[in-house]
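User: Structure please.
Assistant: Input sequence and predicted structure:
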Amino acid sequence: PIFYCGNEASITHFWEQNKFITDVLAPELKGYLLFAEHRYFGHSKPFGNDSFTESNLQFLTTDQALADFAVFLRHYKSNVLKCPNCPVVAIGGSYGGMLTAWMTMKFPNVVDAALASSALLRLLNNVTNNEVYSELISWDYGNASTPNCAASIKEGLWRLYNYSKINGTQYQVIQHER
């Protein structure tokens, strides 16, 4: 199977945006294509309308998402495909790419290979200077989007920063004008 690690939106959105996978890669490889929705996004709300309460948000973690994917893949391979040992290639981009790479690290017995596109693994492991990321994102949105987009992102980052100070977590937010 070719397994798409769903990220921060409805899985339908990612299906529609990944024509390379659905129309080219899967047919060329004659691969069985599976797309999984990340918990808390799209229709995957584990607690229904109460999913976004403070007490239930503790289950919105990358570890939980990876575990969901691993359980799903094991079950699907064994019970639906009747091929518990068939190889799996995980695919994803951006946050989904990070999940893809982490799947191979955390569950090498479930995922055999991965194509992780635009995965910011080095940034999150403090290998790359976070200021560079903030600067590039600010420049990108400032030059390639609507005028209010960059300002809205900047305001959102400042709100996150201020919220994190209240809750004891430190995030660095860089002010960058373009």
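The chain has seven helices and four strands.
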